[in-house]
Amino acid sequence: MSVLDKEKPPVIDDTIPLTCVITGTETVQSHTEFILRIQRGPLKENTWEIRRRYNDFVVLHETLKVAGVELPLPPKRLLGNMEREFIAERQHGLETLMTTILKHPMLAASDVVKKFLDTINYNTNHTELALQFVSMFLRSDPSWEVVEPLREMGWRIRKSFFLIKPKDQPKQRMLLSWVEYGPDRLLSSKDQASVMKLLPNIQHPSIYPIAHALANENGALTIKGFHKDGSLRDYICKTKTMKTPFLKKYANPKSPICLPIPELRQYGRQILEVLKFLNDKGLAFHHLHSGNVLIEKEVCKLTDIENYLLGIPPFYKPFYSQFRKVHSSESIDVYSFGQLLYEMVYGRPLNQATIDFLPPQSPAEIRSVLESILSSEACKNGLPTLEGLLSHPFFADETVTTVGIKPQLKIPSKLKETFRQYKEALERKLKEEQKVIGQVRRLSKAKVHHNSESERRRRKLEARKKSQKKLELVEENPDQSKASTPTTPTPTATSSEATTPASTS
């Protein structure tokens, strides 16, 4: 049976955070196994247990070393490693290691970490699966030829990239991507096919053109030009080679570039313009991050715009889903723009949902933009609109540099209604998820408060006061307390016992 014939498992949202707690240990023969409780998302029913030896953590640590992130692995010990105190200390150290890994978005999203924590759901070779679908496409359109798979391109587990070439132009290189549908897929197969046909017709100076796009019941395939200079993330991290491991390039770059003010103004304005263009057309982008922005002749171009229509969760979803005010398609794009702008300004991703303290040397206008999007107050009370950001003094006076392409996207009337319903359905789904997250968070806070030392003392003090009041009442009114005490009633004879028949006398 081929991979294509296997029964498809339920689609998992790979962006939902995993949490890990080591609940105990068990000695098996001559080694110790650590019992890990893993939870996906906020609901406790999405919980399972796994067992790992210390050597399993060592292998994970060695694999992630390439990222250049400091990970606190407890040291080995040759003697006394079965002592109770040492095992308890090692358990605490391993839990700290897993917490550190899962707090780093790129490490947490990596294939090796997912397989370590959830082997059952991450045991598929997605590159092999993608190659089978690509081979089927090439058989139906033999004008293309695969040059090589690009295994270190992109962070998504279920998205694969291939370098291809047209057979009639063997020196030309194109980029083919295959991605499985995400858990938010809401379009019917018929609508999905119509949407993919529309994508190559989009014209905008800040949208990287799609040469070919199609979809089937399993996923979608697109062909675009191959941008040899890489993405904005490559520019910031100063990376060149496509074969360098993804985590080594991006997880902790050694000397990243901070973009100068003129580039921040120009690129920021271009990105805001194209986001507004898509939202005005009834669409959205949602997948804005430095890996999906290309720079070509001083013009920013967004790529992977098809992700929005394939039900694929965005990279920043774990962050913005915490805030119920970030629920519309436009607010998602605005929030993602704030995260991207932060990375462009400081050369490193924020790697957290909000920030309230920016470096004091930051220019006032940049601080104003970032605080209006990424501060805790902004995320709780509401973000600015795209129009509002375009009119901000930092971007308002900037003239957009284009390459002469006039923005154009003609959407058939039927598809306009489809896009409207699709956007509303996505927003409803997000609101439902945010509601669940909010409920779990409130229950968690209430539980923490209930179990806090101060709350325990307060309850004890309150119980003592009530007990003292009762004693004082008894001492002040002893007769009343006696009167209020119920007495045992004297048994009374029944009528049969009280009367003696005359015949017996």
In sequence order, what are the helices and strands, one letter per element? EEEHHHHHEEEHEEHHHEEHHHHHHHHHH
- Secondary-structure-based class equals alpha+beta
Compute the CA-based radius of gyration: 31 Å
State mean pLDDT (0 to 100 scale).
Answer: 89
- Total number of helices: 19
Q: Could you describe the largest sheet, including whether it forms a barrel?
A: 5 strands, antiparallel
Distance separating the two termini: 104 Å
Strand content: 5-15%
Q: Uncertain segments of ≥5 residues (pLDDT<50)?
A: 1-7, 492-505
Describe the structure.
- The chain is of the alpha+beta class and about 500 residues long.
- It is about 45% helix and about 15% strand.
- The chain has 19 helices and ten strands.
- The chain has a five-stranded antiparallel sheet with strand order 4-5-6-8-7. It has a three-stranded antiparallel sheet with strand order 1-2-3. A two-stranded antiparallel sheet has the order 9-10.
- β9 and β10 form a beta hairpin.
- It is globular.
